[in-house]
């Protein structure tokens, strides 16, 4: 089935699909816009499996361009607006888009220069197409294994990497997420995450499929704006990566607001410290909080901890979503015993085809239809999965193997700390000395000694940082993950 | 130096990395255009604290106070006169 038809199958024309600033779009209006956009793409020579670049931050036009691309059987290629032109050029060389769509405001002259030899489609072309009222396009059938999107991953290298996502992948993952989160037509998601990031795209897929609505945050830089809009539009749900929750809980008015409409929280994109999850749960005892785990290579999501088990299985990412088989296997390929560490391996309809034009890299991670995630984990006796630190996140201090996560979790119990990251730096005596980086709430004066005292009281001596540095801002990638490599390189 | 000029100088140096070719008027939108990004906001709050001795509470971090040099100026004037 064509993914756009699948996503809009249950929609009621008069219901609200999208709110973008002062514009509100019903499903009926969305249908009309997609129809016109299909025509515009067609006029620009876009055919089956041609690649369509979609550039920019979230907007109604992003959604229309994406759904029209899938409707035509073409391939959507979302580009992050945060990418600088030189990297954008590397990405375009990899994905070879035929046209690029975006809002005029997002397509600055340096961005246009990258796509200089391509047709650029903006809302202006769409508006004139609406007037021409073209004949409805023929339905394009899309078999499950047909390519739907190329998702550029956040790698920090100069190389661009694109994951090949099929129509079948999107539909399988959407069904799994809806079932495990119980998303319904009366849900309204506040979208802070960018749609070019698979976690963000999955919010779009799941809520459209259920005929629910999405509010696009008008400003993702200032969290207060997001909170005001949640109240103004009565949003029921919020989804975020750890940095968003850190800001929400430690550096915003969220704890002082009641926000009764907000009843569901989704968290993925890295481990959120347990102390922050506990704070969220204490502030919102009636809300359902879902901790999830996923990868772009698996379309978006692989596992979920049911909200009712948040307190019984703290720190767990849960189990595989419905339709996803998740195993943790050791070096011999055998399922680990409780407590033993192994690699998470996934199977299911959401496992993508691999990386575009990178057969060697694909063969390393995708073996006989299974995805080797590279994430190390343990399981408990009930089969719940716990991610352990990646190999490089261990610090070798005084002969002990120290988990940076445990140090960070301890430091996060100091309320003035917004984010914490521990790294090992070479030390002639210790092997590695622990260097801790923190960011603090603006305006707080907190002596680094206070943080060290907290560590000394709660951690064994070999886990106490040698040095604490306060930063204005953590180096992060576009998805809000702290870049530890950048921290290790700091003098 | 006038408050507006100090803000302008800060933005040119820290957010535009010295690029003076950008037409930065008092009313240029700073957030919508990406001139100030999430790092820029935090740097700006620190700049205000260090240069004007004012802590910006979370509830004041809104576009009406931050989205242009004119708005930042008006916000600072109002805060200074209150304190």
Write the layout of secondary structure elements.
The complex is a heterodimer of chains A (491) and B (83).
Chain A: H1 3-7, E1 16-20, E2 23-26, H2 27-43, E3 51-55, H3 60-71, E4 75-79, H4 85-95, E5 99-101, H5 109-114, E6 119-121, H6 123-132, E7 147-152, E8 162-166, H7 167-181, E9 188-191, H8 198-209, E10 213-216, H9 223-232, E11 237-240, H10 242-250, E12 264-267, H11 274-283, E13 288-294, E14 301-305, E15 319-320, E16 324-329, E17 342-348, E18 354-355, H12 359-365, E19 366-367, E20 370-379, E21 385-387, E22 394-397, E23 400-403, H13 404-411, E24 417-427, E25 431-440, H14 448-458, E26 467-471, H15 484-489
Chain B: H1 3-14, H2 38-52, H3 63-66, H4 69-82
What can you tell me about this protein's structure?
By secondary structure, chain A is α/β, with parallel strands linked by helices. Chain A folds into 2 domains: 1-388, ANL, N-terminal domain (Rossmann fold), CATH 3.40.50.12780; 393-489, ANL, C-terminal domain (GMP Synthetase, Chain A, domain 3). Chain A has a 9-stranded mixed beta sheet with strand order 2-1-10-9-11-12-13-14-15, sandwiched between helices. In chain A, strands 16, 17, 19, 20 and 21 form a 5-stranded antiparallel beta sheet that branches. A 4-stranded parallel beta sheet of chain A has the order 4-3-5-6. In chain A, helix 2 packs across helix 3 and helix 2 crosses helix 6. The radius of gyration of chain A is 23 Å and the shape is globular. The model of chain A has no long low-confidence stretch (mean pLDDT 91). By secondary structure, chain B is mostly helical. Chain B has a single domain, classed as Non-ribosomal Peptide Synthetase Peptidyl Carrier Protein, Chain A (Orthogonal Bundle). In chain B, 54% of the residues lie in helices and 0% in strands. Chain B contains 4 helices and no strands. In chain B, helix 1 (3-14) crosses helix 4 (69-82). The two termini of chain B are 21 Å apart. Chain A binds chain B through residues 81-82, 105, 219-225, 228, 251-253, 442-443, 472-473, and chain B through 31-34, 36-39, 41-43, 45-46, 49, 55-56, 58-59, 61-63, 66.
């Amino acid at each position: 089935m064509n993914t756009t038809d699948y996503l809009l199958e249950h929609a009621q024309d008069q219901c609200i699909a999208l709110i973008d600033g002062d514009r509100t779009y019903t499903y009926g209006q969305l249908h009309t816009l997609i129809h016109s956009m299909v025509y515009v793409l067609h006029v620009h020579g876009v055919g089956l499996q041609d690649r369509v670049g979609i550039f920019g931050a979230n907007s109604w036009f992003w959604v229309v361009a994406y759904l029209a691309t899938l409707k035509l059987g073409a391939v959507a290629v979302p580009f992050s607006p945060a990418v600088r032109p030189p990297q954008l050029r590397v990405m375009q060389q990899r994905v070879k888009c035929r046209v690029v769509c975006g809002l005029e405001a997002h397509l600055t002259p340096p961005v246009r220069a990258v796509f200089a030899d391509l047709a650029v489609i903006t809302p202006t072309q769409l508006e004139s197409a609406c007037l021409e009222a073209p004949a409805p396009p023929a339905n394009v059938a899309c078999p499950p294994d047909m390519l739907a999107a190329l998702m550029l991953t956040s790698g920090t290298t100069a190389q661009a990497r694109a994951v090949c996502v099929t129509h079948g992948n999107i539909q399988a993952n959407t069904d799994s997420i809806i079932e495990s989160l119980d998303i319904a037509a009366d849900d309204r998601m506040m979208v802070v995450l960018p749609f070019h990031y698979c976690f963000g795209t999955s919010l779009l897929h799941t809520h459209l499929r259920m005929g629910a609505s999405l509010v696009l945050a008008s400003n993702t830089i200032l969290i207060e704006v997001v909170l005001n809009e949640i109240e103004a539009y009565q949003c029921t749900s919020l989804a975020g990566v750890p940095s968003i929750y850190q800001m929400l809980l430690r550096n915003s008015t969220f704890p002082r607001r009641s926000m009764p409409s907000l009843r569901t929280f989704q968290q993925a994109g890295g481990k959120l410290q347990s102390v922050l999850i506990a704070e969220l749960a204490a502030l919102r005892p009636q809300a359902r909080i879902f901790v999830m785990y996923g990868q772009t290579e698996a379309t978006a999501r692989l596992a979920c901890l049911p909200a009712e088990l948040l307190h019984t299985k703290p720190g767990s990412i849960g189990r595989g979503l419905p339709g996803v088989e998740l195993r943790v296997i050791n070096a011999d390929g055998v399922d680990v015993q409780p407590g033993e560490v192994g690699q998470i391996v996934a199977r299911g309809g959401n496992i993508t085809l691999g990386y575009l034009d990178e057969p060697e890299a694909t063969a390393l991670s995708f073996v006989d239809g299974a995805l080797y995630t590279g994430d190390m984990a343990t399981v408990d006796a009930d089969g719940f999965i716990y991610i352990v630190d990646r190999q490089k996140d261990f610090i070798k201090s005084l002969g002990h193997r120290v988990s940076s996560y445990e140090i960070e979790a301890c430091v996060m119990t100091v309320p003035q700390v917004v984010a914490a990251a521990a790294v090992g730096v070479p030390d002639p005596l210790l092997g590695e000395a622990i260097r801790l980086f923190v960011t603090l709430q603006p305006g707080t004066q907190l002596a680094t000694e206070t943080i060290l005292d907290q560590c000394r009281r709660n951690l064994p001596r070999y886990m106490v940082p040698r040095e604490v540095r306060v930063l204005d801002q953590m180096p992060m990638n576009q998805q809000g993950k702290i870049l530890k490599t950048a921290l290790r390189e700091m003098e | 130096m006038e408050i507006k000029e100090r803000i302008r100088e800060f933005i040119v140096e820290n957010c535009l990395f010295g690029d003076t070719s950008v037409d930065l008027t008092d009313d240029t939108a700073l957030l919508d255009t990406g001139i100030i990004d999430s790092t820029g906001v935090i740097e700006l709050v620190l700049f205000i604290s260090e240069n004007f001795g004012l802590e910006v509470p979370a509830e004041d971090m809104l576009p009406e106070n931050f989205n242009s040099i004119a708005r930042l100026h008006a916000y600072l004037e109002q805060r200074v006169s209150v304190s």
